[in-house]
Amino acid sequence: MTTPRVFVALAFAAACALAGCSTPSPTATDAPSAEASARPSTKASATPTSTPTPTPTPTSPLNGLPQPDQDEPSPVLVVKLDNTRFAQPHAGLDRADIVYIEEVEYGITRLAAVFSSAVPKRIGPVRSARITDIDLLDQYGSPAFSFSGAQRKMWPVIANSSLIDISPNKAAFAYQRDFSRRAPYNYFVNGFEGLTAVPDASQARDIGLSFDSTPPPNGSVGLSARYEWSASTAEFTYDQASRLYRVSLNGRNAEAEETPDGQRAATVVIQYVKQEPSRFFDKGGGNTPHAITIGKGAAVVLRDGLMYRAKWSRPDAESGTTFTDDQGQVLAFKPGQQWIVLANRNVTATLFPTPPPPKDTDKSKESASDQSE
């Protein structure tokens, strides 16, 4: 008889229902208890966020100094300046990144001042362009080129070069006469206004120079350097207090309108170059020499009271100029204003104290006559 078995089965099922014997659903999730939540987790913690590396402060490729307020390099402006005694005090020159000294007619010299990290509103006295400027400045790309004029045959050369003409013919609004000075040493350019005329001027870029606040090893004592042309001189004397070189031009301290300290150089370079007559002459018949700045040759570098024998190299017009030591290592310049003398390789500079002779020769002075082109 089956009736008791059915009753027992039904009774057991009812008891299971009352006791919660049902199988839990596989999709259900039990909520954690408060006690379990309070216990420390044994799971691996999240990887901590790493601190981002600070972005280094940009530095000028032309003078090696920090430029914290500039996200990108500024345009390059080159201004041709007079370098006779009547030109002093120069205006704006102490803000230039690089200053070149180049010979013109009759043994006098002119300056080519390169501005980018700072562009003064008064720069001068502005003078005319010369043939040396064309190849020399090509390494800057297409800089704005400020000059007072040029001889007739030079205008097509300038027009066909990479330089952007902002002479008074193109940007007269940027120039003015200072009638407190005698002409022609009273012509000044507002560099800021001049650059507004050429928004496509090249930005400062690497032109081969290397900078480091620490002097390179193996330098000898270098307290002064003097270079003479037939009608001009340039002298640089180390000042221990400022750790810069005082600049003297044509026998007198190079004065600055903006500071009683005058012109000071962080690095001085005597760059020996081949110099040859050009096809250009001034109104009096004086020939304009052409300094060849493409090629290679010898140099002397002074910084921090030290002197280094060096070599310079520039393979073509578009390339920058690199300076290396006698071991072939790039020679680091001191950050700050750079003065570069384009010196005829047939005339040696007077250095004090006289540096020791090169290791491969017993000469007591830098030989400039045996440079390769």
Textual characterization of the structure:
The chain has 373 residues and is of the alpha+beta class. It has one domain: YerB-like fold. The chain is built from 6 helices and 22 strands. The chain has helices at residues 3-19, 34-38, 131-138, 154-159, 168-171, 191-196; strands at residues 77-82, 98-103, 109-115, 144-146, 164-165, 175-177, 187-189, 210-211, 220-221, 224-228, 233-239, 244-249, 252-253, 264-265, 267-281, 287-292, 295-303, 306-314, 322-324, 332-333, 338-344, 350-352. Strands 1, 2, 3, 4, 5, 9, 15, 16, 17, 18, 19 and 21 form a 12-stranded mixed β-sheet that branches. Strands 10, 11, 12, 13, 14 and 22 form a 6-stranded antiparallel β-sheet that branches. It starts with a helix and ends in a 21-residue tail after the last strand. Residues 1-42 and 361-373 have low confidence and may be disordered.
Structure summary:
The chain has helices at 3-19, 34-38, 131-138, 154-159, 168-171, 191-196; strands spanning 77-82, 98-103, 109-115, 144-146, 164-165, 175-177, 187-189, 210-211, 220-221, 224-228, 233-239, 244-249, 252-253, 264-265, 267-281, 287-292, 295-303, 306-314, 322-324, 332-333, 338-344, 350-352.
CATH topology call: YerB-like fold
**Gyration radius over CA:** 36 Å
Query: How confident overall, as mean pLDDT?
Result: 87
Q: Roughly how much helix do the residues carry, as a percent range?
A: 10-25%
Number of E-type strands: 22
Task: Write the H/E string, N to C.
Answer: HHEEEHEHEHEEHEEEEEEEEEEEEEEE
Q: In angstroms, what separates the terminal alpha carbons?
A: 127 Å
